[in-house]
Amino acid sequence: MKEWSRTRRAEGHNIGLVPTMGYLHEGHLSLMHRARFENQRVVASIFVNPTQFGRNEDLSTYPRDLVSDSIKCRQAGVDAIFVPGADDVYGPQFQTYVEVEQVSSPLCGKSRPGHFRGVATVVLKLFNVVCPTSAYFGAKDYQQLQVIRTMVRDLDLDVNVVDCPTVREPDGLAMSSRNSYLSSREREQAVCLYQALHIAGELFGSGEKEPRKYITAMSGRIDKEPDAKSDYISLVHPETLEDLKQVDDRCLAVLAVRIGKTRLIDNRLFQGRAGHA
Amino acid sequence: MKEWSRTRRAEGHNIGLVPTMGYLHEGHLSLMHRARFENQRVVASIFVNPTQFGRNEDLSTYPRDLVSDSIKCRQAGVDAIFVPGADDVYGPQFQTYVEVEQVSSPLCGKSRPGHFRGVATVVLKLFNVVCPTSAYFGAKDYQQLQVIRTMVRDLDLDVNVVDCPTVREPDGLAMSSRNSYLSSREREQAVCLYQALHIAGELFGSGEKEPRKYITAMSGRIDKEPDAKSDYISLVHPETLEDLKQVDDRCLAVLAVRIGKTRLIDNRLFQGRAGHA
After folding, report:
1. What is residue A213's three-state secondary structure?
2. Which CATH class is domain B177-271?
3. Are the C-beta atoms of residues B32 and B73 closer than 8 Å to each other?
4. Cα dihedral A53, A56, A60, A61 sign
5. What is the pLDDT along chain A (277 residues), one digit of tens a residue?
6. How many CB pairs under 8 A join A and B?
7. How far is A10 from chain B (nearest CA, A)?
8. Which of these, A21, A258, B11, B272, is most buried using a 10 Å CB contact count?
9. What is the pTM of this model?
Protein backbone atom coordinates (compact mmCIF):
# COMPACT_ATOMS: atom_id res chain seq x y z
CA MET A 1 0.00 0.00 0.00
CA LYS A 2 2.83 2.40 0.94
CA GLU A 3 4.59 1.70 -2.34
CA TRP A 4 1.42 2.17 -4.39
CA SER A 5 0.52 5.46 -2.75
CA ARG A 6 4.04 6.88 -2.78
CA THR A 7 4.39 6.08 -6.48
CA ARG A 8 1.08 7.85 -7.21
CA ARG A 9 2.01 10.87 -5.10
CA ALA A 10 5.45 11.05 -6.77
CA GLU A 11 3.63 11.17 -10.13
CA GLY A 12 1.85 14.25 -8.83
CA HIS A 13 -1.51 12.54 -8.30
CA ASN A 14 -3.65 13.42 -5.34
CA ILE A 15 -5.23 10.60 -3.36
CA GLY A 16 -8.60 10.55 -1.61
CA LEU A 17 -8.90 8.11 1.29
CA VAL A 18 -12.21 6.74 2.58
CA PRO A 19 -11.49 4.90 5.84
CA THR A 20 -14.23 2.37 6.69
CA MET A 21 -14.88 -0.67 8.85
CA GLY A 22 -16.60 -2.34 5.87
CA TYR A 23 -20.14 -3.69 5.54
CA LEU A 24 -20.62 -0.74 3.24
CA HIS A 25 -23.88 1.17 2.96
CA GLU A 26 -25.04 4.22 1.00
CA GLY A 27 -23.32 6.50 3.51
CA HIS A 28 -19.92 4.99 2.71
CA LEU A 29 -20.66 5.07 -1.00
CA SER A 30 -21.46 8.78 -0.85
CA LEU A 31 -17.98 9.34 0.64
CA MET A 32 -16.44 7.34 -2.20
CA HIS A 33 -18.35 9.27 -4.84
CA ARG A 34 -17.22 12.55 -3.34
CA ALA A 35 -13.62 11.30 -3.17
CA ARG A 36 -13.88 10.05 -6.78
CA PHE A 37 -15.07 13.49 -7.89
CA GLU A 38 -12.26 15.34 -6.10
CA ASN A 39 -9.18 13.13 -6.61
CA GLN A 40 -7.16 11.39 -9.28
CA ARG A 41 -6.85 8.28 -7.13
CA VAL A 42 -9.25 6.90 -4.53
CA VAL A 43 -8.37 4.41 -1.79
CA ALA A 44 -10.95 2.78 0.47
CA SER A 45 -9.65 1.08 3.58
CA ILE A 46 -11.63 -1.68 5.25
CA PHE A 47 -10.47 -2.49 8.74
CA VAL A 48 -12.54 -3.40 11.79
CA ASN A 49 -10.18 -1.70 14.21
CA PRO A 50 -9.95 -3.63 17.50
CA THR A 51 -8.48 -0.71 19.50
CA GLN A 52 -11.63 1.38 19.14
CA PHE A 53 -13.88 -1.29 20.66
CA GLY A 54 -14.33 -1.63 24.40
CA ARG A 55 -14.12 -5.00 26.10
CA ASN A 56 -17.87 -5.57 26.23
CA GLU A 57 -18.56 -4.11 22.82
CA ASP A 58 -19.38 -5.74 19.49
CA LEU A 59 -15.94 -6.33 17.94
CA SER A 60 -16.52 -10.06 17.40
CA THR A 61 -20.04 -9.66 16.03
CA TYR A 62 -19.41 -6.54 13.93
CA PRO A 63 -20.84 -7.36 10.48
CA ARG A 64 -18.36 -8.21 7.70
CA ASP A 65 -18.82 -8.92 3.99
CA LEU A 66 -15.64 -8.36 2.04
CA VAL A 67 -16.92 -9.83 -1.24
CA SER A 68 -19.92 -7.53 -1.39
CA ASP A 69 -17.78 -4.58 -0.18
CA SER A 70 -15.24 -5.15 -2.99
CA ILE A 71 -17.96 -5.04 -5.63
CA LYS A 72 -19.43 -1.87 -4.15
CA CYS A 73 -15.99 -0.21 -4.05
CA ARG A 74 -15.35 -1.11 -7.66
CA GLN A 75 -18.73 0.24 -8.71
CA ALA A 76 -18.02 3.46 -6.83
CA GLY A 77 -14.82 3.93 -8.80
CA VAL A 78 -12.34 3.12 -6.03
CA ASP A 79 -8.82 2.46 -7.39
CA ALA A 80 -7.44 0.48 -4.47
CA ILE A 81 -8.95 -1.28 -1.46
CA PHE A 82 -6.64 -1.51 1.55
CA VAL A 83 -7.62 -4.42 3.82
CA PRO A 84 -4.86 -4.91 6.39
CA GLY A 85 -4.95 -7.72 8.94
CA ALA A 86 -5.14 -6.82 12.62
CA ASP A 87 -1.68 -8.35 13.13
CA ASP A 88 -0.23 -6.14 10.39
CA VAL A 89 -1.67 -3.01 11.95
CA TYR A 90 -0.81 -3.92 15.55
CA GLY A 91 2.39 -5.91 15.94
CA PRO A 92 3.06 -7.88 19.14
CA GLN A 93 5.01 -4.99 20.73
CA PHE A 94 2.57 -2.26 19.66
CA GLN A 95 2.35 0.44 22.35
CA THR A 96 1.91 3.89 20.74
CA TYR A 97 -1.39 5.76 20.94
CA VAL A 98 -2.64 9.19 19.97
CA GLU A 99 -4.82 10.98 22.51
CA VAL A 100 -6.91 13.96 21.46
CA GLU A 101 -7.86 15.07 24.93
CA GLN A 102 -10.70 17.58 25.23
CA VAL A 103 -12.87 16.73 22.24
CA SER A 104 -12.59 13.01 23.04
CA SER A 105 -13.86 13.33 26.60
CA PRO A 106 -17.62 14.05 26.49
CA LEU A 107 -20.49 12.21 24.76
CA CYS A 108 -19.31 8.91 23.20
CA GLY A 109 -15.96 9.38 24.94
CA LYS A 110 -17.72 9.01 28.28
CA SER A 111 -19.72 5.91 27.29
CA ARG A 112 -16.87 4.34 25.36
CA PRO A 113 -13.57 4.99 27.18
CA GLY A 114 -10.58 4.52 24.86
CA HIS A 115 -12.77 4.57 21.75
CA PHE A 116 -11.42 7.80 20.28
CA ARG A 117 -7.88 6.94 21.26
CA GLY A 118 -8.28 3.86 19.04
CA VAL A 119 -9.88 5.91 16.27
CA ALA A 120 -7.21 8.64 16.29
CA THR A 121 -4.39 6.09 16.38
CA VAL A 122 -5.66 3.97 13.50
CA VAL A 123 -6.56 6.98 11.37
CA LEU A 124 -3.07 8.45 11.85
CA LYS A 125 -1.59 5.08 10.86
CA LEU A 126 -3.84 4.94 7.78
CA PHE A 127 -2.76 8.47 6.86
CA ASN A 128 0.90 7.49 7.21
CA VAL A 129 0.48 4.38 5.08
CA VAL A 130 -1.91 5.66 2.40
CA CYS A 131 -0.48 9.21 2.29
CA PRO A 132 -3.78 10.80 1.19
CA THR A 133 -4.21 14.42 0.17
CA SER A 134 -7.81 14.28 1.43
CA ALA A 135 -9.75 11.93 3.72
CA TYR A 136 -13.53 11.58 3.79
CA PHE A 137 -15.69 11.06 6.87
CA GLY A 138 -19.42 11.00 7.47
CA ALA A 139 -21.07 13.68 9.61
CA LYS A 140 -23.08 11.02 11.47
CA ASP A 141 -19.93 10.35 13.49
CA TYR A 142 -19.60 14.02 14.34
CA GLN A 143 -17.38 13.63 17.39
CA GLN A 144 -15.06 11.33 15.44
CA LEU A 145 -14.79 14.02 12.79
CA GLN A 146 -13.88 16.62 15.42
CA VAL A 147 -11.29 14.28 16.94
CA ILE A 148 -9.69 13.77 13.53
CA ARG A 149 -9.81 17.45 12.59
CA THR A 150 -8.17 18.33 15.90
CA MET A 151 -5.49 15.68 15.46
CA VAL A 152 -4.72 16.92 11.94
CA ARG A 153 -4.37 20.49 13.19
CA ASP A 154 -2.33 19.63 16.30
CA LEU A 155 0.06 17.17 14.63
CA ASP A 156 0.61 19.36 11.53
CA LEU A 157 -0.66 16.66 9.17
CA ASP A 158 -0.97 17.47 5.47
CA VAL A 159 -4.40 15.93 5.01
CA ASN A 160 -7.53 17.77 4.03
CA VAL A 161 -10.38 16.38 6.20
CA VAL A 162 -13.68 16.42 4.30
CA ASP A 163 -16.98 15.90 6.09
CA CYS A 164 -19.92 14.57 4.11
CA PRO A 165 -23.60 14.78 5.05
CA THR A 166 -25.27 11.89 6.83
CA VAL A 167 -27.14 9.62 4.42
CA ARG A 168 -30.52 8.50 5.77
CA GLU A 169 -33.13 5.81 5.18
CA PRO A 170 -36.48 7.07 3.81
CA ASP A 171 -37.89 7.39 7.36
CA GLY A 172 -34.86 9.41 8.53
CA LEU A 173 -32.78 6.74 10.30
CA ALA A 174 -29.08 7.49 9.72
CA MET A 175 -27.34 4.77 7.72
CA SER A 176 -25.05 2.60 9.85
CA SER A 177 -23.57 -0.86 9.53
CA ARG A 178 -24.98 -1.47 13.02
CA ASN A 179 -28.55 -1.03 11.73
CA SER A 180 -28.21 -4.64 10.55
CA TYR A 181 -28.39 -5.72 14.21
CA LEU A 182 -31.96 -4.40 14.56
CA SER A 183 -34.97 -6.72 14.56
CA SER A 184 -37.90 -5.42 12.51
CA ARG A 185 -39.62 -4.29 15.71
CA GLU A 186 -36.47 -2.45 16.81
CA ARG A 187 -35.98 -1.02 13.33
CA GLU A 188 -39.36 0.69 13.55
CA GLN A 189 -38.50 2.20 16.91
CA ALA A 190 -35.07 3.36 15.72
CA VAL A 191 -36.62 6.29 13.89
CA CYS A 192 -36.95 7.98 17.29
CA LEU A 193 -33.39 9.35 17.08
CA TYR A 194 -34.17 11.23 13.89
CA GLN A 195 -37.51 12.38 15.19
CA ALA A 196 -36.00 13.63 18.44
CA LEU A 197 -33.57 15.72 16.36
CA HIS A 198 -36.51 16.98 14.33
CA ILE A 199 -38.23 18.13 17.51
CA ALA A 200 -35.04 19.92 18.54
CA GLY A 201 -35.02 21.61 15.13
CA GLU A 202 -38.51 22.93 15.70
CA LEU A 203 -37.51 24.36 19.08
CA PHE A 204 -34.46 26.00 17.49
CA GLY A 205 -36.68 27.45 14.79
CA SER A 206 -39.01 28.87 17.45
CA GLY A 207 -36.08 30.64 19.10
CA GLU A 208 -35.87 28.53 22.24
CA LYS A 209 -32.67 29.34 24.17
CA GLU A 210 -32.87 26.97 27.12
CA PRO A 211 -30.92 23.71 26.50
CA ARG A 212 -32.94 21.92 29.19
CA LYS A 213 -36.12 22.40 27.09
CA TYR A 214 -34.51 20.69 24.09
CA ILE A 215 -33.21 17.80 26.12
CA THR A 216 -36.56 17.23 27.85
CA ALA A 217 -38.39 17.27 24.53
CA MET A 218 -35.91 14.90 22.89
CA SER A 219 -35.91 12.53 25.88
CA GLY A 220 -39.69 12.54 25.75
CA ARG A 221 -39.62 11.29 22.17
CA ILE A 222 -37.01 8.57 22.91
CA ASP A 223 -38.91 7.38 25.98
CA LYS A 224 -42.01 6.69 23.89
CA GLU A 225 -40.31 3.64 22.40
CA PRO A 226 -40.49 0.56 24.65
CA ASP A 227 -37.05 -0.80 23.62
CA ALA A 228 -35.20 2.55 23.51
CA LYS A 229 -32.91 3.74 26.28
CA SER A 230 -30.90 6.90 25.86
CA ASP A 231 -27.18 6.85 26.62
CA TYR A 232 -26.81 10.63 26.26
CA ILE A 233 -28.82 13.51 24.81
CA SER A 234 -26.96 16.82 24.66
CA LEU A 235 -26.80 20.27 23.16
CA VAL A 236 -23.15 21.12 22.61
CA HIS A 237 -20.82 23.65 21.04
CA PRO A 238 -20.05 22.38 17.51
CA GLU A 239 -16.26 22.78 17.91
CA THR A 240 -15.46 22.11 21.57
CA LEU A 241 -18.37 19.67 22.12
CA GLU A 242 -18.91 21.21 25.54
CA ASP A 243 -22.44 21.39 26.91
CA LEU A 244 -24.14 24.66 26.04
CA LYS A 245 -25.47 26.82 28.84
CA GLN A 246 -27.54 28.79 26.35
CA VAL A 247 -28.50 28.14 22.74
CA ASP A 248 -27.24 30.90 20.48
CA ASP A 249 -26.61 30.97 16.75
CA ARG A 250 -24.81 27.64 16.42
CA CYS A 251 -25.42 24.43 18.27
CA LEU A 252 -25.20 20.71 17.80
CA ALA A 253 -27.92 18.41 19.07
CA VAL A 254 -26.38 14.99 19.56
CA LEU A 255 -27.61 11.74 21.01
CA ALA A 256 -26.79 8.08 21.56
CA VAL A 257 -29.61 5.63 22.15
CA ARG A 258 -29.74 1.92 22.73
CA ILE A 259 -32.49 0.16 20.81
CA GLY A 260 -32.49 -3.23 22.50
CA LYS A 261 -28.81 -4.16 22.49
CA THR A 262 -27.89 -1.94 19.54
CA ARG A 263 -26.30 1.42 20.27
CA LEU A 264 -27.11 4.07 17.64
CA ILE A 265 -25.92 7.66 17.36
CA ASP A 266 -27.10 10.69 15.41
CA ASN A 267 -26.75 14.46 15.44
CA ARG A 268 -27.94 17.62 13.81
CA LEU A 269 -26.25 20.98 13.49
CA PHE A 270 -28.40 24.09 13.91
CA GLN A 271 -27.18 27.39 12.50
CA GLY A 272 -28.65 30.85 12.21
CA ARG A 273 -29.78 33.02 15.09
CA ALA A 274 -32.36 31.23 17.17
CA GLY A 275 -35.31 33.51 17.86
CA HIS A 276 -34.30 35.96 15.15
CA ALA A 277 -36.20 34.23 12.35
CA MET B 1 9.46 25.18 6.72
CA LYS B 2 6.81 22.86 5.25
CA GLU B 3 7.10 24.56 1.88
CA TRP B 4 10.90 24.41 1.90
CA SER B 5 11.03 20.73 2.79
CA ARG B 6 8.23 19.67 0.43
CA THR B 7 9.92 21.47 -2.45
CA ARG B 8 13.20 19.70 -1.69
CA ARG B 9 11.54 16.31 -1.36
CA ALA B 10 9.61 16.85 -4.60
CA GLU B 11 12.97 17.51 -6.31
CA GLY B 12 13.99 14.04 -5.12
CA HIS B 13 16.35 15.26 -2.41
CA ASN B 14 16.57 13.46 0.88
CA ILE B 15 16.56 15.49 4.08
CA GLY B 16 18.38 14.76 7.32
CA LEU B 17 16.83 16.30 10.44
CA VAL B 18 18.76 17.00 13.65
CA PRO B 19 16.21 17.93 16.34
CA THR B 20 17.81 19.89 19.20
CA MET B 21 16.92 22.18 22.08
CA GLY B 22 19.83 24.43 21.11
CA TYR B 23 22.86 25.52 23.18
CA LEU B 24 24.77 23.27 20.83
CA HIS B 25 27.79 21.24 21.87
CA GLU B 26 30.09 18.75 20.16
CA GLY B 27 27.46 16.03 20.56
CA HIS B 28 24.93 17.98 18.47
CA LEU B 29 27.62 18.85 15.93
CA SER B 30 28.50 15.18 15.48
CA LEU B 31 24.83 14.54 14.59
CA MET B 32 24.97 17.36 12.04
CA HIS B 33 28.17 16.05 10.49
CA ARG B 34 26.67 12.61 10.18
CA ALA B 35 23.48 14.08 8.66
CA ARG B 36 25.57 16.21 6.29
CA PHE B 37 27.46 13.11 5.13
CA GLU B 38 24.31 11.09 4.50
CA ASN B 39 21.83 13.61 3.01
CA GLN B 40 21.50 16.16 0.25
CA ARG B 41 19.79 18.59 2.63
CA VAL B 42 20.23 19.01 6.38
CA VAL B 43 17.78 20.73 8.71
CA ALA B 44 18.55 21.45 12.37
CA SER B 45 15.62 22.36 14.57
CA ILE B 46 16.12 24.39 17.72
CA PHE B 47 13.16 24.31 20.07
CA VAL B 48 13.12 24.20 23.86
CA ASN B 49 9.97 22.12 24.01
CA PRO B 50 7.80 23.10 27.00
CA THR B 51 5.71 19.89 26.98
CA GLN B 52 8.70 17.72 27.86
CA PHE B 53 9.51 19.68 31.01
CA GLY B 54 7.80 18.94 34.30
CA ARG B 55 6.40 21.74 36.45
CA ASN B 56 9.40 21.92 38.75
CA GLU B 57 11.98 21.39 36.05
CA ASP B 58 14.37 23.77 34.33
CA LEU B 59 12.31 25.06 31.38
CA SER B 60 12.80 28.72 32.29
CA THR B 61 16.51 28.40 33.03
CA TYR B 62 17.39 26.04 30.17
CA PRO B 63 20.41 27.63 28.44
CA ARG B 64 19.81 29.40 25.12
CA ASP B 65 22.20 31.06 22.64
CA LEU B 66 20.67 31.34 19.20
CA VAL B 67 23.43 33.50 17.73
CA SER B 68 26.19 31.09 18.63
CA ASP B 69 23.99 28.13 17.60
CA SER B 70 23.40 29.65 14.15
CA ILE B 71 27.13 30.03 13.54
CA LYS B 72 27.78 26.45 14.65
CA CYS B 73 25.01 25.13 12.39
CA ARG B 74 26.40 27.03 9.43
CA GLN B 75 29.89 25.71 10.11
CA ALA B 76 28.51 22.18 10.32
CA GLY B 77 26.97 22.54 6.85
CA VAL B 78 23.32 22.77 7.92
CA ASP B 79 21.10 24.08 5.08
CA ALA B 80 18.18 25.31 7.16
CA ILE B 81 17.62 26.05 10.86
CA PHE B 82 14.04 25.65 12.02
CA VAL B 83 13.35 27.75 15.13
CA PRO B 84 9.59 27.77 15.77
CA GLY B 85 8.05 29.75 18.60
CA ALA B 86 6.23 27.88 21.36
CA ASP B 87 2.94 29.49 20.27
CA ASP B 88 3.44 28.24 16.71
CA VAL B 89 4.03 24.69 17.89
CA TYR B 90 1.26 24.66 20.49
CA GLY B 91 -1.78 26.73 19.59
CA PRO B 92 -4.26 27.82 22.27
CA GLN B 93 -6.53 24.78 21.66
CA PHE B 94 -3.68 22.26 21.44
CA GLN B 95 -4.75 18.91 22.94
CA THR B 96 -3.22 16.01 20.99
CA TYR B 97 -0.43 13.88 22.46
CA VAL B 98 1.43 10.76 21.45
CA GLU B 99 1.97 8.18 24.17
CA VAL B 100 4.54 5.43 23.70
CA GLU B 101 3.51 3.35 26.64
CA GLN B 102 5.91 0.61 27.78
CA VAL B 103 9.29 2.06 26.84
CA SER B 104 8.30 5.44 28.32
CA SER B 105 7.43 4.05 31.75
CA PRO B 106 10.67 3.08 33.53
CA LEU B 107 13.85 5.07 34.25
CA CYS B 108 13.46 8.75 33.26
CA GLY B 109 9.75 8.11 32.65
CA LYS B 110 9.37 7.42 36.36
CA SER B 111 11.30 10.48 37.52
CA ARG B 112 9.87 12.76 34.84
CA PRO B 113 6.17 11.91 34.30
CA GLY B 114 4.94 13.23 30.95
CA HIS B 115 8.47 13.86 29.68
CA PHE B 116 8.43 11.25 26.90
CA ARG B 117 4.87 12.13 25.95
CA GLY B 118 6.17 15.64 25.28
CA VAL B 119 9.20 14.29 23.41
CA ALA B 120 7.19 11.90 21.21
CA THR B 121 4.60 14.55 20.43
CA VAL B 122 7.06 17.25 19.42
CA VAL B 123 9.24 14.86 17.42
CA LEU B 124 6.20 13.62 15.50
CA LYS B 125 5.23 17.24 14.79
CA LEU B 126 8.78 18.04 13.64
CA PHE B 127 8.69 14.98 11.37
CA ASN B 128 5.38 16.13 9.90
CA VAL B 129 6.65 19.66 9.28
CA VAL B 130 10.21 18.93 8.13
CA CYS B 131 9.39 15.70 6.31
CA PRO B 132 12.85 14.20 6.82
CA THR B 133 14.07 10.95 5.27
CA SER B 134 16.35 10.45 8.29
CA ALA B 135 16.51 11.91 11.79
CA TYR B 136 19.59 11.91 14.02
CA PHE B 137 19.63 11.40 17.78
CA GLY B 138 22.39 10.96 20.32
CA ALA B 139 22.81 7.69 22.19
CA LYS B 140 23.24 9.58 25.49
CA ASP B 141 19.44 9.93 25.53
CA TYR B 142 19.00 6.21 25.04
CA GLN B 143 15.45 5.96 26.33
CA GLN B 144 14.40 8.89 24.14
CA LEU B 145 15.88 7.04 21.17
CA GLN B 146 13.87 3.91 22.04
CA VAL B 147 10.68 5.97 22.45
CA ILE B 148 11.20 7.51 19.00
CA ARG B 149 12.13 4.22 17.34
CA THR B 150 9.01 2.62 18.81
CA MET B 151 6.80 5.51 17.71
CA VAL B 152 8.20 5.34 14.17
CA ARG B 153 7.55 1.60 14.01
CA ASP B 154 4.06 1.75 15.57
CA LEU B 155 2.79 4.75 13.60
CA ASP B 156 4.23 3.54 10.26
CA LEU B 157 6.36 6.65 9.83
CA ASP B 158 8.72 6.85 6.87
CA VAL B 159 11.68 8.18 8.79
CA ASN B 160 14.99 6.43 9.25
CA VAL B 161 16.02 6.91 12.88
CA VAL B 162 19.82 7.13 13.20
CA ASP B 163 21.54 6.86 16.56
CA CYS B 164 24.94 8.42 16.98
CA PRO B 165 27.50 7.65 19.68
CA THR B 166 27.67 9.81 22.78
CA VAL B 167 30.38 12.47 22.54
CA ARG B 168 32.36 12.90 25.76
CA GLU B 169 34.63 15.40 27.46
CA PRO B 170 38.27 14.28 27.87
CA ASP B 171 37.51 12.90 31.37
CA GLY B 172 34.53 10.89 30.08
CA LEU B 173 31.60 13.16 31.05
CA ALA B 174 28.90 12.91 28.37
CA MET B 175 28.33 16.20 26.56
CA SER B 176 25.08 17.89 27.58
CA SER B 177 23.76 21.42 27.46
CA ARG B 178 22.95 20.95 31.14
CA ASN B 179 26.66 20.58 31.97
CA SER B 180 26.72 24.38 31.83
CA TYR B 181 24.77 24.40 35.11
CA LEU B 182 27.65 22.75 36.98
CA SER B 183 29.96 24.71 39.28
CA SER B 184 33.62 23.78 38.92
CA ARG B 185 33.38 21.68 42.08
CA GLU B 186 30.31 19.88 40.71
CA ARG B 187 31.94 19.52 37.30
CA GLU B 188 34.76 17.53 38.88
CA GLN B 189 32.34 15.24 40.65
CA ALA B 190 30.23 14.75 37.52
CA VAL B 191 32.75 12.29 36.11
CA CYS B 192 31.29 9.74 38.54
CA LEU B 193 28.56 8.76 36.03
CA TYR B 194 31.13 7.76 33.44
CA GLN B 195 33.28 6.03 35.99
CA ALA B 196 30.34 4.09 37.39
CA LEU B 197 29.63 2.84 33.85
CA HIS B 198 33.30 1.94 33.51
CA ILE B 199 33.07 -0.17 36.68
CA ALA B 200 29.97 -1.89 35.24
CA GLY B 201 31.99 -2.59 32.07
CA GLU B 202 34.69 -4.31 34.10
CA LEU B 203 32.10 -6.49 35.83
CA PHE B 204 30.59 -7.39 32.45
CA GLY B 205 34.05 -8.26 31.13
CA SER B 206 34.60 -10.52 34.13
CA GLY B 207 31.41 -12.43 33.34
CA GLU B 208 29.34 -11.18 36.28
CA LYS B 209 25.68 -12.22 35.81
CA GLU B 210 24.05 -10.75 38.91
CA PRO B 211 22.49 -7.29 38.24
CA ARG B 212 22.55 -6.48 41.96
CA LYS B 213 26.36 -6.65 41.90
CA TYR B 214 26.55 -4.07 39.12
CA ILE B 215 24.13 -1.73 40.81
CA THR B 216 25.90 -1.94 44.15
CA ALA B 217 29.26 -1.23 42.51
CA MET B 218 27.89 1.69 40.49
CA SER B 219 26.07 3.15 43.51
CA GLY B 220 29.28 2.84 45.48
CA ARG B 221 31.07 5.02 42.95
CA ILE B 222 28.30 7.65 42.85
CA ASP B 223 28.09 7.79 46.64
CA LYS B 224 31.76 8.75 46.87
CA GLU B 225 30.91 12.24 45.59
CA PRO B 226 29.57 14.55 48.28
CA ASP B 227 27.17 16.43 45.95
CA ALA B 228 25.97 13.43 43.94
CA LYS B 229 22.64 11.72 44.56
CA SER B 230 21.46 8.96 42.26
CA ASP B 231 17.96 9.13 40.82
CA TYR B 232 18.15 5.64 39.32
CA ILE B 233 20.86 3.12 38.50
CA SER B 234 19.67 0.13 36.47
CA LEU B 235 20.63 -2.77 34.27
CA VAL B 236 17.98 -3.13 31.61
CA HIS B 237 17.13 -4.93 28.40
CA PRO B 238 18.32 -2.69 25.52
CA GLU B 239 14.98 -2.87 23.65
CA THR B 240 12.24 -3.15 26.28
CA LEU B 241 14.17 -1.21 28.97
CA GLU B 242 12.84 -3.64 31.56
CA ASP B 243 15.05 -4.48 34.53
CA LEU B 244 17.20 -7.53 33.88
CA LYS B 245 16.95 -10.47 36.26
CA GLN B 246 20.19 -11.86 34.89
CA VAL B 247 22.91 -10.34 32.73
CA ASP B 248 23.35 -12.28 29.50
CA ASP B 249 24.87 -11.28 26.19
CA ARG B 250 23.30 -7.84 25.85
CA CYS B 251 22.53 -5.33 28.52
CA LEU B 252 22.30 -1.61 29.04
CA ALA B 253 23.67 0.03 32.16
CA VAL B 254 21.85 3.28 32.64
CA LEU B 255 21.80 5.92 35.33
CA ALA B 256 20.53 9.35 36.30
CA VAL B 257 22.34 11.30 38.98
CA ARG B 258 21.83 14.70 40.51
CA ILE B 259 25.02 16.67 40.98
CA GLY B 260 23.81 19.45 43.22
CA LYS B 261 20.67 20.65 41.45
CA THR B 262 21.73 19.41 38.01
CA ARG B 263 20.29 16.12 36.81
CA LEU B 264 22.61 14.23 34.46
CA ILE B 265 22.08 10.94 32.60
CA ASP B 266 24.37 8.49 30.90
CA ASN B 267 24.38 4.89 29.71
CA ARG B 268 26.53 2.19 28.23
CA LEU B 269 25.57 -0.81 26.14
CA PHE B 270 27.36 -4.08 26.80
CA GLN B 271 27.40 -6.76 24.14
CA GLY B 272 29.06 -10.12 23.78
CA ARG B 273 28.57 -13.09 26.07
CA ALA B 274 29.42 -12.14 29.61
CA GLY B 275 31.69 -14.74 31.12
CA HIS B 276 32.47 -16.37 27.76
CA ALA B 277 35.48 -14.18 27.02
Report:
1. helix
2. alpha beta
3. yes
4. negative
5. 999 999 999 999 999 999 999 999 999 999 999 999 999 999 999 999 999 999 999 999 999 999 999 999 999 999 999 999 999 999 999 999 999 999 999 999 999 999 999 999 999 999 999 999 999 999 999 999 999 999 999 999 999 999 999 999 999 999 999 999 999 999 999 999 999 999 999 999 999 999 999 999 999 999 999 999 999 999 999 999 999 999 989 999 999 999 999 999 999 999 986 445 4
6. 76
7. 7
8. A21
9. 0.96
